[in-house]
Each structure stands twice: as C-alpha cells, then as structure tokens.
Design brief:
The protein is about 45% helix and about 15% strand. The protein has about 475 residues and is an alpha/beta fold. The strands form 3 sheets. Strands 5-6-8-11-12-13-14-15 form an 8-stranded parallel β-barrel, surrounded by 5 helices. A 4-stranded parallel β-sheet has the order 2-1-3-4, with helices on both faces. β5, α8 and β6 form a beta-alpha-beta unit.
C-alpha cells in the first residue's frame, strides 16, 4: 500500500511539474579538478563561452563539472573537455571508459598529453582564435560526431539573415564628431607580430582613434627598459613600443602605453620568486600566494613609478593607460587601502605632467562604483573629480542590455563626469561575447550617457572580421 501511494505521489509530481529534462547527448566539461586552483576561474569562463556558442546555434549541450566524470558522461555521445591540463589518474581512467563505450572526446584550448592520447585527437582551438572560427569548429565537430544534433542548412540560412541584418543596422547608424574610438591591444605585438604598419592600416580603415597597447608590467617590458626585465617578445621582435609609435606616425591614431601596475602577469618564474622574497605578492584569504602585488609596498610603488617615468621620457606616447591599479579582491586589505591606490595614481599624474605635459592619463577601472571601493580600493569617480585622470575606462563587460544600461546610467551621473568616461565594451572578454548588434547597442547607450567615447576589448580576429566592418558603416564612419 505504501509503495502504491508513493508511486502515485511521484506520478502526480511528474504530471504537475513536468518530466525531468532528458540529458543532452553532448557535454561541455568544466575543469574544476583538472586545472590548478589559480586557473579555475579562467577555465570556467572558457567552458561557459563554449556552452553559449553551442546554445546560440541551437545545439543542446549540458555544462558539467569534471569532479565526477563517470556520472557526468553517462549516456553522452560527445564530450568537449575545456582546459583539462592536470587530470587525475581517476579522470584519465573515466575518459578511457567513456571512449571505450563509443563516446567521442574533443579537448579544447589546452590539454595534457594523457588526455590527448585518450581522446585520440589534438586540441584544435586556440584561445585567440576568432569567435567565428571557434563557432565553426565546434559545430563541425558536433555535426560530424552526433547525427541530428545540428542542422547545418538551417544554420546557414539563419547566418545569412543575421549578416544581412547586421549590415543594415550598421548603415542606419551615424558617426559623432570628436568621439573616441579606442581599442585595447592585449599582446603588445599588434594583429600581425613583426608588422605594426599592417595593424595600423586596419585600425585606420575602421575608424579607430586610440590604441591602448600593452607594453609593460611589474615583470616585463616589450620596450628597451632599464627598470623592468625585457620580455621574450622584445628579444624576438625588438622594441615594440618604438615600432608601434613609428607605424602610427601620420595615421592620426593616438598611442597610449598600457601599463599593468599591481599584477605580475607575464613575469617568469624567477621574477615571481623574487617578488615573493621581497614581500610584494599578495595572498588570498586561504593563505595562497597569488600573482597580484601589494599596492601599499613602497619599493614596488617606486619601481612602477620609475618605469613609467622612464617610458614617458623616452617615448612620445599620446598617453599612459594604467591597468590593475587596485587591490586583489580576495586579499585582506589595510585600513588605508583606498588611499594607497589613489596616492599612486596621483603620483603618476604628477610625473607624467612633469615629463610629458600633453599626454593623457587614462585608467581601466572596475565598472561598479561604489562597490569597488570595498572590493579593490578603487575610487575612480573621485580621481576624475580631482583631475587626477583625463579619462576613466570602466570595464563594462556584460552581455545583458539591462545590466549595461544600468552601469552606464550610473557612470554618466553627473554629466560633467561623464565627459571624462570612455566606456569599455567587452566584445571578446572572458565575461562577455558580443555580436555586432550588441556592440552597436552598447555604443549607443554609452553615447546616451554622455561618454567621451568607447574602448573595445580587444584587438583580435573577431573584432576585425565581425565587429569593425559593421561599425565603420555608420558609428565609426569617417566623415
């Protein structure tokens, strides 16, 4: 009797609530065990991006954790392994069992040799591949391995309609005189390493006015620095800041030296150890060392100020663009955390004015103020109000229109401050992947907030192939 009653209750629940959705035949495996702890957030962003690409193309796939692979892969036909670089023996065995029962494995971005051997395939995607290339690769794999999971003809029809709509949208827009159209260039080498003139031809043809080129940080310099260690890129391609400035001459495009301040990205292991011994590296709340550096450390601050002074004296840059001018979110902060960061920005401003009076000081900042005061000690509206920076560039890396609109509305108040804001748009950021239509929408929202312009993240194949061709038809069109 009890069994019959339970069965009746279960049947009623299923009838009222609806059947539990069936498992997809495809899994996107998020690395939570098979990557170092410091790389989990990045691996998660790549897995989320992979799942979003499949979803927007009508492919049903489940985003699963690698913590229990046998369970996660049960009943699947295809598993995309995203950044599976440090698999455990148990995970390798689970993948072998999945392959043994006919499952197909496709590693993406990076994978250990064990995973590649078990999968029987080499990773075919690179992080810097364009979104179009990523999309085509993923859909090709789905179409070749899971019959019926992707309708190629329908996809081609929709893509043709989408491209035509983007072109129509682009032509319907109008340029705004004097607007800043900036791009971040993350590699410091341009689109074509060793050929900066070619990069500037692309930028000029697409209406770009300003370039934030990543040239230095606490652990590297792509130029002839005597303060910072010269990078491998410098050794291979030569002085990249000098080459960039030479190529920019006569194009009308302003070059800003992008400097990473309190993060040791690109520092080699010897410098990371040296920073640790100096006490410059911050720990997270669990006591683990991170690549973030201590903004209150006087020796580190002096090193960064000296490097900026050296750069501004030696190179005729249009500006200096500061990044990571903040504390690490997960670190304990002293009572004067906000003052530490503000004082540093103030010191950069004084030095830049003394050495190169006409140069701009711009700063990449977290989008949500005042929450960034407590989280990272970054009081960027006060920097604008005090005249410490020419422009703040909030990183508004979001996809949803409502969230973006709320951010720029807050950042554009009051209007006097808005004129010193360049809205950062995350075209291909980890947090956001935007279509051309979304970029057009966000630019118009930034205009409505009274911003001086926008900055697009970042200069890559996606931007050049899919976004700028639409923007140059209207919003970025040369008058």
């Amino acid at each position: 009797m009890c069994f019959a009653r339970c069965a009746l209750i279960l049947f009623s629940l299923v009838f009222c609530i609806g059947a539990v959705p069936a498992r997809s035949r495809i899994a996107v495996v998020k690395a939570e065990v098979a990557v170092p702890a410091s790389e989990r957030a990045y691996a998660a962003s790549l897995a989320d991006g992979t799942a979003r690409i499949l979803a927007r193309n009508g492919v049903k796939a489940d985003l699963v954790s690698d913590a229990y692979l046998d369970t996660a892969l049960a009943g699947r036909d295809l598993a995309f392994l995203v950044t599976c670089t440090k698999p455990t023996p148990a995970q390798v065995a689970a993948l072998a069992r999945f392959r043994g029962r006919g499952g197909k494995i496709r590693p993406l971005y990076s994978a250990s040799q064990q995973v590649v051997s078990v999968a029987g395939a080499q990773p075919a995607l690179k992080v810097r591949d364009s979104e179009d290339a990523k999309e085509r690769h993923l859909l090709h794999v789905v179409g070749a391995t899971v019959p019926g999971a992707w309708d190629r003809k329908s996809w081609e029809r929709k893509r043709k309609v989408m491209l035509a709509a983007a072109s129509t949208l682009g032509r319907s827009q109008r340029p705004r005189p004097g607007e800043i159209h900036a791009v971040w260039e993350h590699s410091g080498l341009g689109l074509y390493p060793g050929d900066w003139p070619r990069t500037f031809r692309v930028l000029r043809a697409n209406g770009i006015t300003d370039l934030f080129v990543n040239v230095s940080g606490a652990g590297f310099a792509h130029y002839a620095s005597s303060v910072l260690p010269r990078s491998k890129e410098y050794a291979r391609y030569g002085d990249q800041l000098a080459a960039c400035l030479a190529a920019a001459r006569g194009t009308g495009i302003r070059v800003h030296a992008w400097v990473i301040c309190f993060n040791a990205t690109r520092a080699d292991s010897a410098y990371m150890l040296a920073f640790q011994k100096k006490g410059w590296r911050l720990k997270n709340k669990q006591g683990t060392l991170t690549e973030y550096l201590d903004p209150s450390n006087p020796d580190l601050r002096w090193r960064m100020l000296k490097s900026i002074d050296e750069l501004a004296r030696a190179y005729p840059v249009a500006g200096v663009h500061l990044d990571f001018v903040r504390w690490y979110e997960g670190a304990a902060k002293p009572a004067g955390a906000v003052r530490n960061v503000t004082t540093f920005v103030e010191s950069v401003r004084k030095r830049l004015r003394a050495v190169r009076p006409g140069a701009w000081l711009t700063v990449a900042v977290l989008a949500d103020h005042p929450s960034c005061l407590a989280s990272v000690g970054q009081d960027w509206p006060a920097w604008i109000d005090a005249g410490l920076v020419d422009y703040a560039v909030p990183m508004n890396y979001v996809e949803k229109r409502a969230r973006y609109a709320a951010l720029v509305a807050k950042q554009g108040n009051p209007k006097a401050r808005a004129r010193h804001v360049i809205g950062g748009i995350g075209v291909t950021a980890n947090e956001s992947k935007l279509s051309a239509a979304q970029v057009v929408e966000q630019i118009n929202l930034a205009r409505g907030a009274g911003f001086a312009g926008v900055a697009l993240f970042d200069l890559d194949d996606t931007l050049v192939e899919s976004i700028l061709p639409v923007l140059r038809l209207g919003l970025f069109r040369s008058r």
